[in-house]
Amino acid sequence: MATDRPRRTNGRAGEDPPDSPRIAWRKQMRESVLDAAHDLTCEAGWDEVSITAVAARAQVSRPSVYKEFGNRAGLGRALVIRETRQFLAGVADTLDPGLPDSQACLEAAIRYVLEEAHTQPLIRAVIAAARHGSDSLLPYLTARADPIFDGGRHLVREWLGTRYPGQLTEALEMTADIIVRMTISHLVLPDAEPHVTARRLATAARALLHSAGSAEAAVTRSPAEAEPF
Q1: pLDDT tens, residue by residue, 188-214
Q2: Which of 50, 157, 165, 221 could form a disulfide with 176 if both were Cys (CB 3.0 to 4.6 A apart)?
Q3: Is 46 helix (H, G, I), strand (E, B) or coil?
Q4: Half-sphere exposure of 44 (CA within 13 A, CB side)
């Protein structure tokens, strides 16, 4: 009687099987196209980037680029998403575990954004062009329903929840929304040095949470405990 034996696999236990040649080529092609779009954007600005130029730089066909990204807008969106996700990973490292003092920790994260963005070639190019009103990649950094904006807001919201566990969900979401919007705004139109802006925004966020906590306490306080007007 034959005994059952486990199937042999090419990889170690728990590892995903290797990609098929077709999928591996597609992934490599996608990264090559994004790298080409990144370099061209840094060199000349997104307004001067065409699918034809990107395909030529990446050494792939134009139909392959259209098939993968849909159109030029889809390519731009994918490019900014890739770069910003890498950037947000650095923000996450600043927040977690972060400094013990919550306001100081938030201030450090905001300062990281304001300073580090200018060391990232693509993000720097987008911001520089936006200041002159000529770049169409900026909406991907600021659109309310965009995955990038949502990613930043979710990151800050989750961190606030760990630092201020007693706060109302609505207050945490509102504060995270304001922090992300104002930080992006100061990236495009700075009015002070990064450390000054970071301190101001962190202080404002703390005041907002304190105000929300005070309002919650006033609502739940019994009439006998209410303070006189």
Answers
A1: 788 899 999 999 999 999 999 988 766
A2: 157
A3: helix
A4: 9
